[in-house]
Specification:
Number of helices: 4
Strand content: 15-25%
Shape: elongated
Number of domains: 1
Length: about 150
């Protein structure tokens, strides 16, 4: 049985190959949410309800915590459509939106945000310590946000 030849890789190339990642994002799932408008009593009509939409994207494969933070830090979008507004539950990115135009705007930006996160993740060093720090920073931000909202 012949020996398999392996090409020579420099240390930098080997490190780059180890940190390359390609996360893909599928099309969003859009789920409507309808609730009665506060203060309305009696016979309610269709116009007495407010509608919002939960928009969720599932990445594949599930990205590491540092990649998630990079996506949420994407430096482009608009004042109303920004990656920072996305919520991450460990499986899906999501956001609640009120109208179809906003859903489409997020759908247009998502591929660029994913490309940004993939590229940035590949440029940075990823060690267990760096990944642990990124996860801890995310948890610290969540605690700060909860304390601010009290």
């Amino acid at each position: 049985m012949p020996l398999e030849e392996k090409s020579f890789q420099s240390e930098n190339e080997a490190r780059a190959a180890a940190t390359e990642i390609h996360i893909r994002m599928g099309a969003p799932r859009v789920t409507p949410h309808v609730v009665a408008i506060d203060g309305k009593t009696g016979g309610l009509t269709k116009d007495d309800y407010a509608t919002s939409f939960l928009v969720a994207w599932q990445p594949s494969p599930i990205p590491p915590a540092h990649w998630v933070e990079l996506l949420r830090q994407a430096p482009f979008g608009t004042q109303l459509v920004r990656a920072r507004s996305l919520h991450w539950n460990g499986h899906h990115f999501s956001i609640e939106l009120l109208n179809e135009a906003d859903i489409e705007a997020y759908g247009i930006e998502m591929p660029d945000w994913v490309a940004f996160a993939n590229a940035e993740y590949g440029r940075r060093e990823h060690t267990p310590a760096a990944d642990a720090l990124a996860a801890a920073q995310k948890r610290a931000q969540e605690v700060e946000d909860r304390l601010r909202n009290r």
